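Bug: token stream looks shifted between consecutive jobs. Job 1:
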Amino acid sequence: MGFKSLQDIIDKSRYTDGNIFEAVLSDDISERGVTRESSIREMLKMWTAMKSSYQKHEGSLKSASGLVGGDSEKLKVYSGESDTLSGGFICKVMYTAIAVAESNACMKCIVASPTAGSCGVMPGVLIPYAERYEISNEKICEAMYVSAGIGSVIAQRASISGAQGGCQAEIGSAAAMAAAALAYLMGQSPEMVMNACALALKNMLGLACDPVAGLVEVPCVKRNASGAVNAVIAADMSMAGIISVIPPDEVIDAMGEIGSLMPSSIKETSKAGLAVTDTGRKIAACQRHL
């Protein structure tokens, strides 16, 4: 996409009656030379795939390593039988996010949003939201365009790659995109949509990418739940009128700088962090003998 900053998206939305979705859609049509109908049709396919990755999730399925599987089902049962601390909606967000991330680990179809490792965050908030508020597929797709525009700016100004910027670039970016989507769906102004994005991303700054045994499983799957809940919290704070003191584009730039300062050992190489704990090393050794 042609946006260089989040402010650029806000500025261009002024030509679409303040509608970020229309601004991002217009940019996509121009950038790829497609029709409006074609662009929206592709986005609807991605939303359908997100829902399918959750609906077709199998609670009994385990990943090839045996490290992932069953946790979403545990949360689902817990939320239905217990007086949870988080409440029903947040629990639904958590187990949906984990279910999609488990589907990824078990080689099911997912949507990289923005990456495979963070694939559970967006559906983790959008699926429960759509069910709670009975929102149409078309309206959810509008929010996905908003997220896509933000993701493209993050990718240009910083990174969405764990190997380049640590997990802040994956789960952090996904949380920022999801928070903005929620704020958009709740009717917030373009400025407050971007504010929600900033609040979510700030909470993830410095997050290491330290996968155990080099697999996108531990701690990646559970981090999807944390990222999704973070998105909800950030959207609520923004809707309450809480403002990020550091402007959204500067937050993205800070994330990029932090990523460049991170040692390679905590950028997807599995040479530090959780990957080299005693248990992490034992798991890695077991995986080498499989």
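Job 2, same session, no restart:
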Amino acid sequence: MNKPKLSHLDSSGGVVMVDVGDKPDTPRKAVVQSEVLLSAETFSMLKEKALPKGDVLVTAKIAGIAAAKETSRLIPLCHPIFLSFVDVRFRLEESKAMIVVEAEARTTSSTGVEMEALVAAQVACMTIYDMCKAVQKDIVINNCRLIHKSGGRSGVYDSPTSSS
């Protein structure tokens, strides 16, 4: 059985940026989901917008969107791409004191937007952490994963464990 070839390695094992020059531009979309686990007290303060640093979710949304636009500067072999759409959404699950963070990125390009969606989700989660850490030290960021991808050669992927 042949192992899949790693696209960022050349024939001698050296690191390379993938050449996407011959690939056609196609509409592409990626959706990533992650979770932030808070205490019931912190969750309540967040929901009531009573945390000392201000409106956590508005700040996290802006941070996630801004981060997606910087992805190629953060991930060394990631191509800079034109993003046609980025959004960060939140679902509050009070019974678990959990914030489900969902980041979506879209482009029409010769390469995908999974990394941009991953970076957006994780920076949004870290922003929530940063804005809540004054009242809680044991915040957990959990379960970051790709839940949807479409466009390009590999077609559509939907996570079998996706709750969306």
